[in-house]
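Hey, resending since the last one bounced:
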Amino acid sequence: MEAVHRGDVVEVDASGRMLHVIGDPDRVVNLRSAVKPFGLLALLRAKGTNELDLTSEELALMASSHSGEDLHVRTLQAMYRRLQISTSVLQPGVAAPLDALTAARLARDGERPGVVRHMCSGQHTVFILLAKLGGWPMDGYWEPEHPAQRAYADAVAAIFGVRSDKLVTGLDGCGILTYGFRLRQVAEAYAVLADPAALRAADPRAAFAADLVVIRDAMLAHPEMVAGSRERLDTSLMKASDGTIVSKSGMEGLRGVGILPGARGDGSPATGIAVKLEDGDGNDRATYSTAVEALRQVGALEGQALRSLARYHRVPSLDSHGRLAAEAIPEFELAPVGELTR
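The structure tokens again:
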């Protein structure tokens, strides 16, 4: 045994009731990229879909941490051309593609990394489009006091049921604010994303149900836009589950997963799962393995869907000759919360 990863997992329904847990469900985590489906709500609240004639592919890309493949770049550039916005406005930083094959091809061809290949260029586009709709300056859209940033924060606060001025914030790696919440709050938000109709009419979040459905369905319809076409768990989970699971990673070992109603049989309710690895899991092997195992244990993955995710469930490490040298093996058991509280 060369490494041991520790972490926390919690399953919650849309009302906030915990169902399964291991570790600390009240651990405070930075949402990082797991915020993207909820921040995108700001653009829909501003009527951006209709005003800017946005496609579902474009919406999925704006909820993404994409791999920087050509399909992502083409979609992004086409949107900017149509809306007559220069991509020079984008300021997420310069990054090589996450996709190894694309990165190798660009290096071979002498293409330098750029902003459009950055995993967060879709999210940053949300701020730029909010500025266009609001008539606000696009320069400095990443600054915390920019109106587009405040609109984005308002959307996040609304879904997480807090006041905007009470948000716990930090600075994300791409230069914008990130938000801190308890792990079980993250799971609840993903349960809401999985089934916005489950919200009670008296719940203030019910006002955003239709927009959340649009975001969820865009992600499910275009999973390659949310992550990538090769070896990205978010994409693979949504494809393997045949549209019954919506998934979005964060950084530092965080992942939010929404399990849609009916995923575990007729009449089964929607729930959300949040996973956090203590050490940040820099190579993703523990986060991948933990997420798939948690979904197996709660009955959301089985049979062929589970088998198709075997490379994520027990992530292999190969030697220089392509031989299996090691595997990431998930060893934990989620506890039903009802049994803990008897």
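The chain has a mean pLDDT of 95.

Sorry for the duplicate.
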